[in-house]
Backbone:
């Protein structure tokens, strides 16, 4: 499977647009990860017209395909995967054809995980306590990795716009997450930083201007 050359860009004010419903388009993100992940926060904004399930974030290693995976099952229902285990969150604030600001946190010490959507948070749940994510990660936007870097299913693909993707190796404070929800960043992600993003694209993926804040 070939990739285009690695880009490193400040994508402030830009979005990735994936307009087609198939297994070809995706974005591979190249993260600055040099130690095991024992806590994390991943934030992004997305806008999609799909009602079916779709994958928002997929991190695989050579030993496990669903090390970290965030899947929108249906309107208001989201599934998180950590270390091959999964949890469903229901009745979350959601919408179609509108911007959704989302953050997902997980701390291996306790296993506590939580979702934030448009400023409102879910209840905290427990998944994979004391788990550690090791090995070279493959991080993909737009598709679910059923194998390391591949195994894509078009029925789980994302169609729409995604922007402001940040990934930290810690759980952000509620105040920092609320800043993000309002379009501000106190400190960019140290693993993935939208303002200095390293990425490759495959298939019909376009970089367009964002209308989240005008």
Residues:
């Amino acid at each position: 499977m070939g990739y285009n050359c690695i880009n490193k860009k400040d994508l402030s004010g830009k979005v990735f647009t994936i307009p087609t419903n198939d297994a070809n388009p995706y974005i591979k993100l190249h993260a600055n990860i040099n130690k095991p992940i024992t806590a994390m926060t991943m934030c992004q904004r997305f806008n999609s017209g799909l009602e079916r399930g779709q994958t928002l974030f997929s991190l695989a290693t050579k030993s496990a395909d669903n090390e970290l995976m965030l899947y929108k099952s249906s309107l208001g229902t989201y599934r998180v995967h950590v270390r091959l285990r999964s949890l469903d969150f229901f009745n979350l604030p959601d919408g179609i054809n509108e911007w959704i600001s989302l953050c997902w946190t997980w701390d291996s010490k306790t296993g506590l995980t939580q979702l934030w959507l448009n400023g409102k948070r879910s209840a905290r749940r427990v998944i994979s306590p004391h788990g550690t994510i090791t090995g070279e990660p493959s991080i993909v936007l737009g598709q679910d990795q059923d194998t390391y870097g591949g195994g894509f299913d078009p029925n789980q693909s994302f169609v729409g716009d995604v922007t402001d993707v940040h990934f930290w190796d810690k759980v952000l404070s509620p105040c920092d997450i609320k800043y993000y929800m309002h379009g501000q960043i106190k400190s960019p992600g140290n693993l993935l930083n939208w303002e200095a993003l390293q990425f490759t694209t495959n298939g019909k993926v376009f970089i367009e201007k964002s209308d989240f804040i005008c």
In short: The radius of gyration is 16 Å. The chain has a mean pLDDT of 95. The first strand starts at residue 7 and ends at 9. The chain has one helix and 16 strands.
